[in-house]
Amino acid sequence: FDSKHTMETFEKIVSPKERDLFNLDVEVIDWDTYFQHFCYGLHRFCLKDDNVEPPVFSNVLVRENEYSLIPLSAAAGSFVPRSMVNDLSFAVYANSVFNSSKTKIQFIQSVMQSQVVQRAIRNEMDAISCSHTQVEKRAHSIMEIMFADPQMKYVRTCSYLLRKVWRIMYKAIYIDTDEISMIRKVAAKAGTENGPLVLLPTHRSYIDFLIISFVCFAYDLPIPHIAAGEDFLGMFGVRKIFRHSGAFFLRRSFQDDSLYKAIFQEYVQQLLADGAPLEFFVEGTRSRGGKTMQPKLGLLSIICDTFLTKRVSNLTIVPINISYEKVLERESYSYELLGEKKTPETLTNLLKNVYSVLSKSYGSISVSFSQPIQMNRYMEEMSYRFMQRGNLSLVDDSGSSGEKAGGNKSLAQGIATKKSTDVNSLAVVHPKDRKRKFSPATNAHHKKLLVQQLANNIAHSLDEVSITMPTSMLATITLQYRNGISRDHLMQSMLWLKREISLRKGRVYWSATELTSSVVDRSLHLMKNEIHHRKHMIEPAIRQKLGNMDYKKYIQLHCYRNQLVHLFVREAIVACAFGASTLRAGNGNSDTSLIGTGTVPRQKLLEECQFLNNLLSVEFIHNPDDPELSFSHVLDKMKERGIINEDEKRMIGVADEESFRFLQYILWPFIDTYWITVQCVLTLNFSGASSTSAHISMGKDTSHPADRGILHERIQWLAEKCFFNGQILFYESCSLDTIKNAVSVLLNLNVLEKVGRNHVQLTKPFGSFGKLTAFSDHILRFRKIGKQKKMVMPQAKL
After folding, report:
1. What's the chain's Rg over C-alpha atoms?
2. How many whole angstroms separate alpha carbon 357 and alpha carbon 371?
3. Got the DSSP string for 241-307?
4. Which is higher by pLDDT, 746 or 347?
5. What is the dihedral of CA 275, 279, 282, 286, to 10 degrees?
6. C-alpha 246: how far from its chain's center?
7. Residue 442: its H or E element
8. pLDDT at position 689, please?
9. How far apart are CA 74 and CA 72, in angstroms?
10. What CA–CA distances, in Å, run from 410 to 392, 416, 571, 607, 609?
11. Secondary structure (3-state) at 706
């Protein structure tokens, strides 16, 4: 078929402007999107299938044809796809490079000669009374271990191998081409107005940094230097490949080593000043629980210092979300979340697991880039808000209607609050700073505000651009119907959940050309170890051969569900708060029908929402500057969606019981963990049980504070005991991640206080047994109360 004559005639009779409006060039048609709409039309209008959903995205989630659509930069800003290219030419002809102009040896010389490192060397000489040569030798040793030695030949070799490995392990890697084009434009100006790139991906798997480097290589983006833990240094051979691929290695903690800290800080800042892109994980470690964790501020603070000290004129921070249909380490995570030690990263362990890993399918991966944060513009916004409002964040959760949420009053009944270290709550400017100019370069308090606000916005952006995988949806529904759900009911629930996610501006990895049945089948196949499909019913795979019960499957499904919790958490807080407000001691959270059980004054509901929100402040990420996250706004949105209703007296009632129950089921396991944590604190020894002596003892008659690690273990032991005794309903409440967050919240809310580095004790206000019991009873009202036995906790040691 030849359309040459048609195109020539078209060009003669149509003006250039009209050609943009009426495009007949088939070469520029996005055929994937075209056929999505075509197939939707067939299903909807020809086959009269009312259950099929219209395409949600016009050109998002473009499949990369199993990594065969590789960009080839013919000129600046151009993008020429090559559809049939072999792995070798892909690795050889890609134009990606390291932006840094210095070698490892040059960096060592430059860092060693810096004023910061020389000052640290002198301080160490004075502190330990040794010679300059000895300290300098130790500094050289630190730099040899830490610094990267990037070489493109290693990157090309790894890309060649990874391309083959990805094809074995994954069905596809999906990337939004519009987002890639945006990052390419930003990277093109990295040397001038935008400054160096700082890539901040989510951290769910060790695959993360390999994926990001591979995507950068494939799309001719500069290869980043990657902050990696020293754990990888134990992997002989692998450490060399990583180092030559741009990785530099750091200890997990080095606060007590001032020389190491000075070298690391100077090296990072020199990398950025040299124009090298940087990649690190703002969460600090892999998220075993599947959701975005509270950000760590250390490395982000160093990066901000690079900008504040004018070593770079600007920085471009790019949050990146990586979503997996199936996480490679999911099974090992479940063991770690149940308290078992992490398997060390060694070459032996790697080789032992290679065959097992490559023989399994892990579905697809989606990589999403958030809008870049320009550091100079962000500083201008912070300065403006500082001068205009006198504070930098906390949105009043009572909303704009003039109501008082009453959160502080409600909290004061059971909690003596103190200044929190949670980034969601530390954003208020000190009163003496209100009339000053915002100057984080010279004011330590202002710098702390800047870093905390920036970290919170980054974490929120990571959630905002996330792609919800069908496996996450399947796990969510299976956990709600853990006694079994039919296939037809499951497919209806999947479609319903897909619509609910889209209503909340979420994105779902679900092509419009895919039938619901095929999506469900694919997800069931990927999760065959976690979910059983037998006798026409689908249920969690906890029943094993010989009658054994594998309850850790609940933990694994819980981690999959956590990938979408952020979309519903504010409404879930409202739903559980409603249950706590309607009837006594949690009866509103029972299995009885909610329709017609009563209504709650809006004021009272907002108070309970605030209490629960403060209790879960470390558990979930939210942006306090977003007015849509105020609970008054959440209530209004729930009314619009038909989940709740409100009469003229501002009394709130339940309108959609199915949606309401779904929201409660999302949050109940977390609430159980927090309640169990307080119960465990109640069962620990009180030294004297008085307000002046509130040490927690883990021994027989000692009066020492509790070791935090042992306290975590004891809480987990109690949670499992309560589950098997029927006192809690959700085994996922035993997750160590949530237990650690619960203890952190008790520290933030002044129930516990730190003693030294690793110990905690009760604070004086909670030295009395009665006050802690009242706090526990308040949490109890939010729990799901079913057929559990009444739990009476003794005032004694465990």
Report:
1. 28
2. 34
3. HHHHTTEEEE-S--TT-HHHHHHHHHHHHHHHHTT--EE--TTSS--TTSSPPPPP-HHHHHHHHHH
4. 746
5. -170
6. 24
7. none
8. 38
9. 6
10. 24, 11, 19, 6, 10
11. strand
Please tell me the distance from the alpha carbon of residue 429 to that of residue 427, in angstroms, as a whole number: 6
pLDDT tens digits, one per residue of 400-414: 333 433 333 334 344
Provide CB contacts within 8 A for 487, sequence distance 6+.
520, 533, 536, 538
Amino acid at 150: P
Closest by alpha carbon to 242, among 255, 257, 230, 260? 230
Helical ranges in 22-131 per DSSP H:
31-41, 87-93, 104-113, 115-128
**Tokens 């060649």 — which residue?**
160
Cβ–Cβ contacts within 10 Å for residue 626, how many? 13
> 502 is written with which tokens?
């889209």
Neighbours of 302 (CB within 10 A): 18
Q: Report the alpha-carbon distance of residue 492 to residue 481 in Å, rounded.
A: 13
CA triple 286-674-563, angle to 5 deg = 35
Between the CA of residue 50 and those of 43, 149, 281, 533, what are the distances in Å?
A: 8, 58, 43, 27
Q: Is 642 left (phi over 0), alpha (psi -120 to 50) or beta?
A: left
User: Which whole number is the average pLDDT over 357-362?
Assistant: 87
Using DSSP, state whether 433 is helix, strand or coil. Answer: helix
- Tallying the residues shown for the chain, one arrives at 798
Distances from the Cα of 639 to the Cα of 398, 503, 595, 634, 655, angstroms: 16, 13, 15, 9, 9
Nearest to 451 by CA among 489, 485, 474, 421: 421
3-state SS class at 423: coil
Which token pair is 452? 């905390």
Residue 539 in 3-state DSSP? Answer: strand
Pairing verdict, β 507-508 and 373-374: unpaired
| Euclidean distance between CA atoms 479 and 561, whole angstroms | 9
Q: Which contiguous run of DSSP H or E holds residue 57?
A: none
Residue type for position 117: V
Contact 615, 674 (CB under 8 A): yes
Q: Is 699 left (phi over 0), alpha (psi -120 to 50) or beta?
A: beta
Going from the C-alpha of 599 to that of each of 51, 350, 392, 393, 784, the distances in angstroms are: 34, 57, 36, 32, 19
Q: Which pair of structure tokens corresponds to residue 732?
A: 């996922």
Which H/E stretch holds residue 153?
helix 152-169
* 703: its two tokens: 């009066």
Question: Helices (DSSP H) in 425-469: which residue ranges?
Answer: 444-464
Q: Structure tokens of 17?
A: 């402007």
pLDDT digits (tens, 9 = 90+) for 307-353: 999 999 999 999 999 999 999 988 899 999 999 888 777 767 777 77
The separation between the first and the last C-alpha atoms of the chain, rounded to the nearest angstrom, is: 82
In single-letter form, the type of residue at position 662 comes to F
Q: Please, which residues have CB within 8 angstroms of residue 163's CB and are 6 or more apart in sequence? A: 67, 87, 90, 91, 214
665 in Cβ contact with 477 (< 8 Å): no
Whether the per-residue pLDDT at 517 is higher than 50: the answer is yes
* Torsion, CA 326, CA 331, CA 334, CA 340, rounded to 10: -150
**Structural contact between residues 470 and 560, judged by C-beta atoms closer than 8 angstroms:** no
3-state DSSP assignment of residue 465: coil
Alpha-carbon separation of residue 766 from 329, 487, 749 (angstroms): 40, 50, 11
Q: Which helix (H) or strand (E) holds 614?
A: helix 602-615
Instruction: Tell me what pLDDT residue 436 has.
Output: 67
Q: Single out the residue of 211, 274, 276, 207 nearest to residue 246, CA to CA.
A: 276
Entry pTM:
0.82
